[in-house]
Design goal:
The protein is mostly helical. It has 30 helices and no strands. The chain has three domains: 181 residues, no CATH class; 195 residues, no CATH class; 84 residues, no CATH class.
Length: 655
């Protein structure tokens, strides 16, 4: 029996596990979880309230089971997680059975049973979010609930409110009002975020991630900074669809960071490159790590407009990062071009053309996804369809190419489906619980009036002036986004930061891109910097050194949002494509100038005069206006020409 249990468990995880029985339970729950979402997004057979409770309660149960089988979990702790997973079935069953009565009869006559179940549901969600994501989000939610109840005791016009009665306060967390854990954010998580998490899992399990890294090698592997360029390109491509910079660092960084170290880059720099590249995937079209769909859901701006606005900023971000790692390679005298064959063995185990033909399902599925998304259809349903196309074509490919008998193919197919379901369901569940907890925080802040008053307070602090307001909003967004996944961070800062910017005349799209960039870049901003933390652990490097190097490598992420607000044509707002391209090119040279000043190196080490000349170059290129940009470009060209002449002189002297 134990042999068969182990074999069944390997249908969900590739490695041997001492907890095969629990893995099977979690795997079967994952399959059911996925099937409910697939059928719901295809047929809408469940009312919205029931679907949301299945999504959140199922996500909590899955998270507890995943924590139970995690390496290092003690026996007592493991079984307490199992009991909590079973306990989650109680609020799930209660709300499903009582749904119609709660939604129609008990909105104004709340029963004590409803309150008891709501308290249990909230406690399970807060505990699951704490164990999976740390104390920050759960602590903020608890503090917000206390604020909702005791607001009448808080001094100050900004924070004071009349207070919310206990019964009503608990009702806002889930039932009977279907807010908080079961509010609009839960619907967004279930209908949009989860399908893309499933698609990302399918990409990984069908071998597309390995192919993406091989493609990154073909583009950047034979350059001077080979492994660093591979990390930039590969992690950017993966981050685009993963929806989590932390997950991206953990997966691709396990390969790219050791390679960068092996080829001469310092551990802190290697970790920072991976963290910044993975974080940038969230701002890269067409999927933008799910952010595009969140912005659509919150603002109502068409998806196509958001994607078009994000193109040039993403090019600036990654172009800058590629230049930065190349300059570092020159400065440290690193040149891996002579070892390109050694590097290629890591990424191209087979000829590239053969690998491309074998990964045609990837091209077909992603092309379908992008083309249909542009047509304006529901992104969640399209992601499910694209996942089905990818899985179906991959299974067909394997049956044709790798035939090893009917039994062998059936076993392989079962493993593929089981692992996609397990990985995708778990990823979606982990995001679902933190988004649900944020839903509690957001709804209480709205009900108390704090969110609206905060916008007015920010305007008062800035005196109605744009620049002070931008600085205040940037710091606020970084603070609110610390320690959160990108999707959750954006939802929070969109509520608290964007309205004030819109009040002073910043266009709606520019305001939301401003807060989104800062919510995203918070994952590489110390003191939390979760992406840099994971990268530093993999690299065996100092966390703070990795974090601060990451801030410098991610410089466009900090500077571009200000351009969105004061120079919105960079987003294509009320502008033509040639003008947007020109402004973007100037901004790119401007941020590169800043990096050269900080690095102290271009083609050769920069002397003090050359650094001084790059200051007006950077300032002029980053300021709005053609005159200032032209002056800045002249200063940059002067330094570039000076460096080129000196480098040629040195080459002739060495010859």
């Amino acid at each position: 029996m134990s042999i068969w249990t182990s074999r069944i468990a390997r249908c969900f995880v590739p490695d041997e596990t001492p907890h095969a029985g629990l893995i099977i339970v979690a795997g079967l729950l994952s399959i059911a979880f996925v099937l409910v979402h697939v059928f719901q997004l295809s047929t809408y057979f469940l009312p919205s309230g029931e679907f949301k409770v299945v999504h959140i309660a199922g996500g909590i149960a899955l998270t507890f089971l995943a924590l139970a089988v995690k390496d290092g979990t003690g026996r007592l702790e493991r079984w307490h997680f199992v009991l909590l997973a079973l306990l989650t079935l109680f609020p799930l069953g209660y709300i499903l059975i009582e749904h119609d009565a709660i939604a129609t009869q008990r909105q104004f006559m709340v029963s004590s049973n409803d309150i008891a179940v709501a308290v249990l549901f909230l406690a399970l969600a807060l505990y699951a979010a704490w164990r999976e994501w740390g104390l920050i989000m759960s602590g903020l939610a608890i503090a917000t609930l206390l604020y909702g109840y005791y607001g009448y005791l808080v001094p100050g016009e900004l924070f004071f409110h009349a207070g919310i009665g206990l019964q009503r306060l608990i009702g806002y967390t889930s039932i009977p009002y279907f807010q908080g854990l079961l509010g609009g954010l839960a619907e967004l998580s279930a209908g949009t975020i989860f399908p893309f998490m499933l698609f990302a899992a399918a990409l990984e399990m069908t071998g597309c991630v390995d192919y993406i890294m091989g493609t990154a090698y073909r583009v950047g592997g034979k350059t001077r900074a080979g492994p660093a360029q591979i990390a930039v390109i590969g992690s950017g491509l993966m981050g685009m669809v993963s929806g989590s910079s932390v997950a991206n660092v953990a997966s691709t960084g396990a390969l790219t960071i050791p390679l960068m170290k092996r080829f001469g880059f310092k551990p802190e720099f290697a970790g920072a490159v991976e963290a910044v590249a993975s974080t940038g995937g969230q701002i890269t079209p067409p999927i933008m790590g799910l952010a595009a769909f969140l912005i659509v859901g919150i603002t109502g701006i068409p998806y196509v407009e958001i994607v078009k606005a994000a193109v040039f900023p993403a090019l600036i971000y990654y172009g800058y990062l590629m230049v930065a790692v190349h300059i570092r390679a020159i400065k440290r005298n690193i040149d891996v071009r002579d070892r390109a064959e050694e590097l290629g063995k890591e990424f191209l185990p087979e000829p590239f053309l053969k690998a491309t033909l074998r990964n045609l399902p990837f091209y077909i599925a992603t092309t379908y996804l992008v083309v249909v998304l542009i047509s304006g259809m529901s992104p969640g349903a399209i992601a499910i369809e694209a996942t089905g196309i990818l899985i179906g074509l991959s299974i067909l490919r394997d049956w044709v190419i790798n035939w090893d008998g009917v039994t062998g193919r059936l076993v392989h197919t079962a493993q593929l489906l089981g692992r996609i379901a397990y990985s995708g369901a778990l990823r979606g569940a982990q995001v679902a619980i933190v988004v649900a907890v944020i839903g509690v925080l957001v709804d209480i802040l709205v009900v108390t009036g704090f969110a609206q008053k905060l916008s007015f307070a920010m305007l008062d602090m800035a005196g109605g002036e744009l620049w002070p307001l931008l600085l205040i909003a940037a710091v606020s967004c970084l603070a609110f986004g610390l320690g959160l996944p990108t999707s959750a961070a954006y939802i929070l800062v969109a509520l608290l930061g964007a309205p004030a910017l819109i009040q002073v005349g910043v266009p709606l799209l520019a305001a939301h891109m401003f807060v989104f960039y800062f919510a995203n870049i918070s994952s590489i901003t110390p003191p939390v910097a979760v992406a840099s933390l994971i990268a530093a652990k993999i690299a065996g490097a100092s966390y703070f050194r990795t974090g601060f190097i990451g801030m410098r490598l991610g410089l466009p992420g900090f500077l571009l949002p200000f351009l969105f607000a004061i120079h919105p044509e960079i987003l294509g707002i009320d502008s033509t494509l040639p003008y947007v391209a020109m402004v973007s090119a100037m901004a790119f040279v401007g941020v590169v100038s800043v990096n050269l000043i900080l690095e102290g190196h271009f083609l050769l080490p920069l002397n003090w005069l050359q650094r001084a000349l790059l200051l007006p170059a950077a300032a002029g290129l980053l300021m709005p206006g053609l005159t200032s940009s032209a002056i800045g470009l002249c200063f940059f060209a002067l330094v570039a020409g000076w460096q080129y002449v000196d480098s040629k002189r040195q080459e002739r002297a060495a010859a």
